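Blinded run. Sample ID left blank on purpose so nobody reads anything into the name before looking at the predicted structure. Input follows.
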Amino acid sequence: MAPSASAAPGPEACGNFQLAASSQCEIRTSGGCEASCEPVNLTAACAGKCEGQCNASATAECDVDCSGRCEADCQVDPGSFDCQASCSASCKADCSGRCAAEASGSGARAECEGACKASCDGECSASCEVTPPNADCKAQCDASCSGQCKAEANFDCNVDCNADCTVNLQGGCQAKCSQPEGALFCNGQYVDVVGSLQDCLDYLSTLEVEVNAHAEAEASVSCAAAPGSSSSAPFAGTGLAALVAGVGVAAARRRKRS
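Blinded prediction complete.
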């Protein structure tokens, strides 16, 4: 019998970081990379690690209040209503006010807001993914409000979990920066790659995320090249060695120009 093919890498290869085809990702190295390993840039990675750690139940008051507003919005144009987008937007709208009351200092508030918003994205995604887009307004709003109200109920727990996580993750981020392949950031957030970077890049390719090395960029790799860009060279499917080589060429060209 022929040996079975190994399973393709899944989201766990990228630390369960939430990614989409529109994500903007880059590989950063050395000093500029280490400067990016600050708590506010670690919240998305920690959201995946904190997922499932907080299990407070949503309140009935939140659900009733949310459902009324959500269904009114949905009825305006049911065909274009997006459960996850509605849930995340409503949930995130409360993050600033909550964090202003809970955290002192701009840095602490920014970290708190990052944790709050990452929790909103995670809870909304989990709640809405089982609801088909063509479901009626009640079904979509039930899912949307379930995610929003669960994130609200677990606000304190998620912020505390994120704070503990960032302390531990910061050192790992800086360590990745010192390695030849560098550290991966998507949408400005550090991606805590589990295992090999190549596995994570392979997973990105399954999302049809095009990986390009930009010679004129800060030794970066974009996971969604700008349309019509002529300064990028595609590395999708060529392996990590070629990807790192492309980044090295970009760095060498910068040094030569300076």
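Unblinding after everyone has recorded impressions. The radius of gyration is 20 Å.
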